[in-house]
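Researcher: Here's the sequence for the chain we discussed earlier.
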Amino acid sequence: MVQNSQHIFEARLDNVRCMSSVLKSVAFKDYATVFISNNGLKVTVEESKCAQVNAFLQSDLFQAYEFSSDTLVFRINLNVLMECLNIFGGAPGHSFVSLKMYYPGEGEPLGLVLEEGGVVTECQIKTMEADEILDFNFTSVGVQNKIIMKSECLRDAFSDLDVSSQVIEMLMSPDAPYFRLSTFGHAGTTTNEYPKDSDMVESFECTKTQINKYKLTLLKPSIKALLQSTKISIRMDDRGFLSLQYMIKTEDGNTCFVEYLCAPDEDNED
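Model: Thanks. This is the structure I predict for it:
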């Protein structure tokens, strides 16, 4: 560990891939906002103020985690961070690359020390003042419908979607067809339906029928998290806002979550 009493944040990870694999699922924009608290790290990326993705790296993911302040927030170049985390390659099967991370304080660079087989590389990444993050006000109180599914079935569904469609329509209902995905492209309408008693559905809690459309371009980045996840929680609130929460297992057996929030497409409402 980089021991320094002037660092308000320090953390150590024996296998950097446990962090880089999760952040890979949100790395679809150049910049991200990082929140540091006693609970861990939250990395937030936004798209057009209509979609937001949050990767949660809880403190117990790290072998050592020390934080001596209130919540810290800063903006960082996500591409640079990913390049530093993968500076030794990082392919599965190689020897583990350890990570020591530290942050002296507001306005200072984020420090990374990576080590593989005795070879040490240190990186200093510039941090910037964070822009205001959009509050989607997505709470469990407003949730009307919720389905927990195995990710593999949605991976198949998303691979079948007509990419010429501008939107994807989601139907969630207590009645048949229960859960349906539809696209409307040059080849016509493509649908995938999932009954509530499907082996792929682990939990089904729907109280009313909701049909909402979402821009396909906004949902495409969430496929990165879908590909790495084992389960997905799909929630829709009373405004039609969508939450896709992906459960990702790291190489050391820990569980991390990536949540994708998306506003409905008002331009395509019936």
